[in-house]
# Entry
Amino acid sequence: MKPGWERLRAWFLLPAWIWLWALFAAPFAIVIAYSLLTRGAYGGLSEPWTTESYHRLLDPLYLEIVLRSFVMAAATTAICLLLGFPLALFISRSGRRRNLYLQLVILPFWTSFLVRLYAWMFLLRDTGLINTILERLGLIHIPLPLLYNNGAVLLGLVYGYLPFMVLPVYATLERLDPALEEAAADLGAKPWPTLLHVILPLSAPGIRAGSILVFIPALGAYLTPDLLGGGRTVMIGNLVQNQFTTARDWPFGAAISVGLMALVGVLVVLALRRERESLV
Amino acid sequence: MEFILELRGVVKHFPNHRAVDGISLRIPRGGFYSLLGPSGCGKTTTLRLIAGFEQPTCGDVLLNGAVVNHLKPYERNVSTVFQNYALFPHLTAAENVAFGLRRRNQTDVARRVREALDLVRLTGKESRYPAQLSGGERQRVALARSLVLQPDMLLLDEPLAALDPKLRKQMRLELKEMQRRVGITFLLVTHDQEEALSMSDQLAVMNAGAIEQVGAPPEVYLRPGTRFVAGFLGAVNWIGGIGLRPEVTRISRGQPSNGARFRPATVTGSVFLGNCVHVLARLESGEEAVAEVSRGECAYTAGERVHLCWNPSDEMIFP
# Structure
């Protein structure tokens, strides 16, 4: 490459480079430093340097929260896949209506996530729309406990992250050669075997990408369990927030963050390795 | 049943056009048959109607004497070799061939896959993925994948179009030979008249959703039933309403005296083609004609007065 081009390339990369160092690497270094310090008497930080916070991570009380977060994130991913795959398949077969349906999938992003979670609260609470209608119809006499439990949190997580599953799965299904499906039918495969042996394996890259995009933010979710769980469903994100606010234990909060990030990092590396293996 | 396939007045309308407009055709068991026609003539739609990917708007498709109009592709014992082969990219060559056997819960899969790959001379490439195979090898996998199921009929949709020209000519002979060896009825769809002429036992020429003529290659080429067939199968000189192929159109300086028909003409140019020379001439009527002459014949120069001559038996006459 010519030197002029080399310089231009450097200039183009500069914003990304600054962004990465100033907004990712530097804060991450600060978080690691915090996690190795000691909690101050009135919050904040003080010396000496210690790995005490990391030892506390192994406390069964916190391990239970980590485990619950994993279960919630895994359940969210599974439900998003069960709902999202058929939806993506349907959209990819909708001909000229495809773009309309895709817009509808993206439509929720036009409003703030916070506002949408409050909307769910209005629907689910004891005096909310669903309970009111059921009561007026005489189907129930005391309100159903729809809000402030694990189910509500799971509902909110699935609702929030479903588009992140639908879009990558759609992208792989849309690129699928329709002749492959015809070839399967031609060779004697009925619709279900065709789905199982041809369409599903060929959309694996999209399913993997969608699963990563749903699982990771669901694992660190903070707003959804806070609002729809009402503080009863504590996930890793809420634990971190607690340490930095009410508990005033910044080193421990930082240690949880680093631990979460390490876990996610390992999972992504594993998923990407699978991806590389499947590329032949 | 004598006929493996019968089409009775088959019509297929799409929202915006009539792809197939009343086709009747009978194909006996065994042998190599072709549907030949320009793009958009309905030949691929006809093939898809036979395979079951489309349902006829009206008319009947019969396989082995039974109406199959509403049978799904997986309920019909015919198999298709797709234009781009449509091999499953996530399966190896052997797994592609085994796909149909597994879906039909057949036994002895491993042995039959081995035999099928042997038949198409792909032994040793069983565990390659389609992306690791050449175009010709992919086509062999597609053939093996269909033939292993021993279908009543093998449908081939422009199977040679994706190959380079040299390989294409070689595969013509191989396909023909393959058909003889397995005895399964082959139905080829193509727009390439040379392909259809060189491979088929019988061919049907299609135009605008209808069949123009059915016959053996020499019959269709030498005695075309319509002007369209004459023009589609090869070059034609139109002289006073009759058609003449360039290779039977001769040229001479003097007036021929051996009973040949002739017309005076003026040479307008010549094209050297390697194996022969095309001499272009204009008749007094203004009609243009091409005569295919051998390289050894003395050169004709533009403006020269000559005679175009031909045997009456070579004339193609249309009502």
Notes: Chain B has a mean pLDDT of 91.
